[in-house]
Design goal:
With 213 residues, the chain is an all-alpha fold. It is built from 9 helices and no strands.
Length: 213
């Protein structure tokens, strides 16, 4: 038999395994099933943990992101391109962003064709902007060339001349102290900045200046 030597500060009688209360009273035949000093699983408490809400690969709450997008669309007109840019600024993964855009289009919350016509009408009638300026502004909002062309087709040359003349008549009233040459120069610059063609500018200025006499 091998002699075991203990270190001076070790009392072998104090290091005997203590029977676990869980195993107390069990048959010794089962003692080989569980190593000494190891509690059985029946003594371990398991706590149910509530599963977290579904989030994207980027750690975003997709439901919250969708609600935020819908509130934004409710408060302002946006093109598909603008929504894509907004989602990118929120670090939305491409797949999730594409799914949200498709859903908004399917529900008609997003519609570039409708938006192009509404903007063309608004910019022409309320802002007095020409087709060239409207085209540029719609392009800046990411609307396709085909949709822009269809939208501005509804604005014909007669409409543009009428609007340009209306704007010139309003502006010429502010030039009562100016001579005709100076007033005409101011009117030409004013209408040209709105993108009207040379023919329309000349016709509108002529009509406005004739109202001064």
């Amino acid at each position: 038999m091998t002699n075991v030597t203990f270190l001076p500060w070790v009392n072998p009688e104090q290091n005997q395994p203590i029977a676990s209360p869980v195993n107390a009273g069990e048959a010794t035949a089962n003692s080989h099933d569980v190593p000494e000093g190891v509690s059985r699983l029946s003594a371990v408490l398991f706590i149910d943990v509530e599963e977290p809400e579904e989030v994207s690969a980027a750690g975003l709450d997709l439901d919250a992101l969708e609600q935020s997008l819908l509130r934004k669309l409710n408060s302002q007109d946006m093109s598909v391109f603008e929504v894509q840019q907004w989602l990118a600024s929120k670090d939305a993964p491409e797949a999730d962003a594409a799914e949200l855009v498709a859903k908004c289009e399917r529900l008609n919350y997003l519609n570039d064709e409708r938006l192009a016509h509404e903007l063309a009408s608004r910019l022409s009638e309320r802002k007095g902007k020409s087709k060239s300026v409207i085209t540029r502004e719609l392009r800046q909002r990411g609307i396709s060339t085909a949709l822009i062309s269809a939208a501005v087709e509804s604005i014909d040359d007669d409409d543009e001349l009428h609007k340009a003349t209306e704007l010139a008549l309003q502006r010429v009233r502010q030039f009562s102290r100016l001579d005709d040459v100076t007033a005409e120069r101011r009117l030409v610059g004013f209408l040209s900045r709105r993108g009207y063609s040379g023919d329309i500018v000349r016709a509108a200025c002529k009509e406005a200046l004739s109202s001064r006499s």
